[in-house]
């Protein structure tokens, strides 16, 4: 009986310990958690005394699903988390490891080294490594680059103006009596085909005679000549600016192109997981990129510095594709290379072995399946370049509307004069015939 009593006492102790342990876990989830984060647009930004952004919205949704209160604090050293030679971590990862924070929510890349130091949830966003460039560096020359000075709408407008002018010259030549007062062999010299040829010759500043003799035809020709002079001036101005020596003709489509050139500098964020990727890679192209960055010390201290140097030109910023997409959405002169390597995810970090990890991972998956993560992505990555598309270097139709207006007025005035010339000639002919009839004998 004594043994049985000891077993019962031991069982009671185990059950009690499990109960209190479970209560402790629940209390840990429901108590106010300390959240560490870092300022980086659009994940976490200041708005007055409050913080907002993608990560703050994500934290709010996760807290509702898991059921905890929280207070957010910015990381003291302004770093994401890097391990030194002694095995110590700094940044947000270091604060979680030392127990100064319960969770770290930021664009924290899920890596093997971080997974050993802290617990990481399922990724809430996928990213990779890509290249940020100015558009004039990333875009190569093509077969139809001679069309780039004007937009497609402008070229259509020029074609319509050309055909309209040729038709106006043809009609004016047919209506005006001055064009018919020629020898019989030249009566049909202004056929429609000749009008097209004459207009094309004027467009290239090469005369294609004979020229109209009627005032109406000459007014139409003068308006077309003025139109072509302004048009050619705009064309060559835009063409020369797009092909100026200041615009590098180097084409960079991916990392191999970047490694095989020495005209532009390139670098990444110092101490980032991007740098670690190139450092640990066995790919010869990636190794060359890492060795070049180490040799030239072309690292940047922040994302903003990398974007600024890319905007200034002659620099390619290597970073995580999601962050580069944001830079492209905010700065219309930048573009991200299509090649993306080293796909990985952003995760929430907690203490190693924390009971929060599983619940947080489930909450992240639920938000993903419900489309909430996609909504937050579209909300905070909205492009501000939509209103700036008209700022393209190509000539827009509305910017050339003045010369189209002058041409239209010239064509209209020429057509009106042709009708008046025909009417005047008809009246004189009728008066002459009437006078002849008066002198005719009965």
From TrEMBL:
How would you describe this protein's topology in the membrane? Multi-pass membrane protein
Q: Which residues cross the membrane?
A: 154-172, 192-209, 215-236, 402-420
UniProt name for this protein: Glutamate receptor
The Ionotropic glutamate receptor C-terminal domain is annotated at: 32-383
**Gene Ontology terms, cellular component aspect?**
postsynaptic membrane
Q: Hey, where's the site called Interaction with the cone snail toxin Con-ikot-ikot on this chain?
A: 279
Question: What InterPro entries does the database record attribute to this sequence?
Answer: Glu/Gly-bd, Iono_Glu_rcpt_met, Ionotropic_Glu_rcpt, Iontro_rcpt_C
Q: Which GO terms describe its molecular function?
A: ligand-gated monoatomic ion channel activity; signaling receptor activity
Per the UniProt entry, the signal peptide is 1-28
Query: Which species expresses this protein natively?
Result: Lates calcarifer
Stretches assigned to the Ionotropic glutamate receptor L-glutamate and glycine-binding domain: 42-98
């Amino acid at each position: 009986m004594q043994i049985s009593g000891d077993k019962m006492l031991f069982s009671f102790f185990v059950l009690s310990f499990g109960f209190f342990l479970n209560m402790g876990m629940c209390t840990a989830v429901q108590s106010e958690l300390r959240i560490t984060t870092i300022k980086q647009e659009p994940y976490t930004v200041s708005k007055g005394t409050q913080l907002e952004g993608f990560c703050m919205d994500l934290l709010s949704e996760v807290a509702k699903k898991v059921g905890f209160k929280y207070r957010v604090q910015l990381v003291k050293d302004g770093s994401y988390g890097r391990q030194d030679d002694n095995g110590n971590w700094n940044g947000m990862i270091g604060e979680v490891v030392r127990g100064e924070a319960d969770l770290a929510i930021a664009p924290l890349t899920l890596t093997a080294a971080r997974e050993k130091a802290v617990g990481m949830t399922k990724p809430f966003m996928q990213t990779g490594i890509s290249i940020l460039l100015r558009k004039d560096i990333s875009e190569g020359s093509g077969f139809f680059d001679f069309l780039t000075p004007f937009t497609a709408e402008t070229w259509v407008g020029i074609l319509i103006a050309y055909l309209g002018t040729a038709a106006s010259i043809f009609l004016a030549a047919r209506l005006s009596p001055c064009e018919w007062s020629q020898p019989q062999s030249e009566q049909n010299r202004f056929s429609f085909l000749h009008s097209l040829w004459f207009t094309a010759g004027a467009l290239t500043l090469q005369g294609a005679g004979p020229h109209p003799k009627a005032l109406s035809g000459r007014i139409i020709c003068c308006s077309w000549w003025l139109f072509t002079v302004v048009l050619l001036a705009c064309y060559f101005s835009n063409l020369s600016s797009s092909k100026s020596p200041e615009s590098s003709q180097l084409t960079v489509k991916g990392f191999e192109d970047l490694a095989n050139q020495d005209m532009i500098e390139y670098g990444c964020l110092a101490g980032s997981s991007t740098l670690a990727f190139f450092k640990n890679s066995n790919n010869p192209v990636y190794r060359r990129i890492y060795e070049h960055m180490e040799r030239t010390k072309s690292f940047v201290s922040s994302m903003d510095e990398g974007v600024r140097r890319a905007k200034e030109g002659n620099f390619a910023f290597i970073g995580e594709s999601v962050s580069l997409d944001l830079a492209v959405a905010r700065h219309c002169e930048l573009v991200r290379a299509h090649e993306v390597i080293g796909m990985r995810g952003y995760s929430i970090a907690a203490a190693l072995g924390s009971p929060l990890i599983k619940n947080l991972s489930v909450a992240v998956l639920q938000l993903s399946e419900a489309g909430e993560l996609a909504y937050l992505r579209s909300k905070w990555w909205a492009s501000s370049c939509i209103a700036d598309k008209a700022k393209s270097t190509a000539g827009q139709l509305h910017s050339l509307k003045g010369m189209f207006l002058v041409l239209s007025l010239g064509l209209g005035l020429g057509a009106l004069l042709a009708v008046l010339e025909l009417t005047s000639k008809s009246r004189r002919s009728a008066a002459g015939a009437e006078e002849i009839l008066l002198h005719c004998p009965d």
